[in-house]
Specification:
two-stranded antiparallel sheet, mainly alpha, about 450 residues, about 5% strand, about 75% helix
Length: about 450
Amino acid sequence: MISINKPYLLLAYVPIIELPQVDEKMIANSNQQQISAIAMASLAFAACFAVWTLVSVIGLQIRHELNLSDTQFGILVATPILTGALLRLPMGILAERWSSRNLMIVLMAFISLPLFLFSYASTFTHYLLLGLCVGASGSMFSVGIHFVSSRSSERSQGLAMGIFGAGNLGAAITNLIVPLVIIAYGWRMAPMVYGVVLLLLAFLFWMLTDSDPQRTRPTRVVPLKEQLRPLADARVWRFGLYYFFVFGGYISLVLWLPDYYVNHYRLDIQTASFLTLMFTLPGALTRVLGGWSADHIGARHVNWSVFWVCLVCLFFLSYPPTTMTVHGIREDTTFVIDMPVWLFTVLVMVMGVAMGFGKASVFRIVYDYYPERMGVVGGTVGMVGAIGGFVLPIMFGLVADIMGVRSSCFMLLYGVLAVCMCVMYYGISVEERRSRLQEAIRNNFLKEDSDATSG
């Protein structure tokens, strides 16, 4: 046995451990894979979002062919949104249990089939049934958000999800491309073109993306009850309400604005689709900036600012065309208050920009509270938002038929936003009160512990 009198001499017997050198090439390849994955996921989501909103444009032709009422048209354009909404939670659960990458590939291949059949439909019932099948494209968000979140660092989650969420640009693609296809080949060619594009993207996604990271693959099968436990938290549904407005309101206006321009301002379908593009395009692109702002400023501050901007815009958009007569001493004076199309478009565009920020900030809040449950919680919040995209267009049609006022759709959105702001204010107040109470209890405990120690 070796005896050493001086302990510091033990250092001489400690083997020298060489630290592993950082492989810059490996890091570069990893970053390249992340960029490729996020880019392909965003492209796939954009294509699915374009499919999800396809009926908003070709529905104008179907409405003319079948002579549909406002309510029937609202049901027609909202039907695909229903399936996408209801499937978001189940698809989020599957994304956590299986492979989000494989789910995205299978989903794109599946949706292409009803798209091909859509071109041969002839009755209102056919369009509704196929619309339900096509609507599965809306569930791509729940799968994709898990796919992107698992491949992004914690500090850049808002930006990564914002880039992916910019796939809402698909609505702008529909407003831009589909009218051109209708002019050249008729509306029945548009679903077939979309079906071919989805099949091609499914193949490219399979070729250009890697399998899910090892850390996202469950080592054990998580019981469904445990997986759904966060849904018992009222906070999840509060976030869902916010998304009901910023995303559901966005989708509902994407579906409703072309018809609004055609019937209120007497524009042709090409001009109406182009002006709708002024809403859909900023609402999609600013989602990236919204994600960055949520990372650096704070998601809650961004969301509250979004609500105030939308409240001001909706106040003016809700005002219907009005004729006011002032009875003077000698003669009457008549004033006509009617918002010109350019001002209407500007206000709608500003609201689209705000909604883009809001969509990104809501999901940054979700990640802040539930980073390990982005599939389930994100799917639930996305589901509630998409249900807004289904319910609101139908409500738009109903209130328009009942009130006989076109701007009643904006009155309805104004009411929804007022509820969201009241709930958010109350939720923030409760959280701050709880935080102050916990801080007081903690300080009191520390004081008592200090007194006991000194005593």
